[in-house]
Amino acid sequence: MICSSGITFDPRVGGRRLTFGFHGIFQGTAVLYDHQTSSKWMHLTGECFEGELEGTFLERVPTGRHTTWADWLATHPATDVQMPDPQYMGRRGDRGYFPEAASRRGGKHLPQFFAETIQTRNDQLHLWDLVYGVVVGKSPRAYPFKALARHPVVEETLHTLPITVWYDARSGSAAAFDRRVGARTLTFREAGDGRRRDTETKSLWTMDGVCVRGPLKATRLTSVFGLQAEWYGWYANHPRTTVWSP
Amino acid sequence: MRAWIALLLAVALGACGEELEPVGDAPSDLLDREPPRIEDFAPFDDGLPPGTPRIGRFPRSQFHIDHDRFLPATDPKTMPGADVRFLKPEDEVYGVLLDGHARAYPVRMISYYHVVNDRIDGVPIAVTY
Fold it and tell me: Which of A189, B76, B90, B91 has a 20 to 30 A CA-CA distance from A38?
């Protein structure tokens, strides 16, 4: 599909809220523009590459993740949900959403005009392989979903930051966290039911890094920014990426 | 027009257990099921030195421009998750947590909008896909 990457940005630049629209495609991923200055932005990195705001990077909000509706609702019973907008759909002459098959992550639905915009390619992984991409400092690192399925907890230190990358096979959801809590650096094990347990205090943690049972109850791990992407999109936007393997 | 009315009805009836028809009338160009051939891709690793701005060095002709092909959602309405009937359990969502407030964006919708200019508890965010 079209990179399969949901990303949350802080749209405030210089005290002003920018709102964005769709401009085009480059590197197989969306190019956006802002309505305030018409500057152009890369969706995957939040980099402004043309216009008044060129050189600006939007700050990324690290607490978003892809998952299934069942998992999200079970984890967050009080969640709200964006509603379908009938006006939008009427105006566009369509319904404002894709058939399920066309938006399935990792699906091979890249029209040729998308492919032609990809200037930077690497065949270390299959183009369509899903990865969880994490950026710590200036170092991008990709964790292939296939590897995460066998190793649902990965612990590493990147640039002196001890991180943990989690994968829940039931929902196909990945997330990354700083694994320090106070003076402690925790280590985690899969505990079933989409939860993790830390070996130091035996506390139970959700996929959102919230402790729901045990001595650390109500503690939140600090999220590390990451996103899911097909390999082609991650690589094209982060050509200096390294790839984790077990 | 009929589809539009049907959809309005479906949304209105959402709380009563009706499901949205899960097939949209998406434009045919974006439903191109043909996977690209390997030769469609530029076969190189550009090996840029660190810190090089990467976008500017590619000519604009490499871009596919289709300005406003998709319109963003701005400050969309939301509904309580407990009342949602238009999602199936296995449907993919993109969830965001901000200060403990959880919001879910159905992927079938945001993959279409590409941008949701939103606020959670007054704090502006831009969700892009």
Answer: B76
